[in-house]
Design goal:
alpha/beta, 7 helices
Length: about 180
Amino acid sequence: MKICVFLSAADLDERYTRPAREFAELLGKGGHTLVWGGSESGLMKVVADGVQETGGRLVGVSVTFLAAKARANADEMVIAADLAERKRLLLEKSDAVVIMVGGTGTLDEATEILELKKHGHTDKPVVLLNTAGFYDGLRTQFLRMENEGFLPVPLTDLVFFAEEPVGALAYLEESSGTP
């Protein structure tokens, strides 16, 4: 399975890097392909290293203004002209999406895929990996949106919240029929 991971390129502490590395190793050992922002820094590097070191493939989609930070030894690297094209290519090249910890860029990517699902423009499974409770506030906001009528479909049809890496991958494999 080709799994797109939206996540931070920032250097983060162990409470975020350990679960990210664990998820990456599960991907690699499972023979999956990581589709990611292509960066050779921060959490993006941690995940790419973990996938590559355990036998998985790397498909990166960087963007022109970040091309200097792109991973040189990815199996495939595409340089998009802008962020909109980058998001489109990341989604085109993947079968499923995992949202890890991140900043405004990650949040932008997350809300775009959820909006596409809400309107029936994709049926890719989406998992939000809630490492160290990072997305507890966002889950509360999404539930409020659902309860107050802002979501025309149930939240559970849009995204699965996983607390641990193994649960995230299990959900994706079950959703796609991959053993």
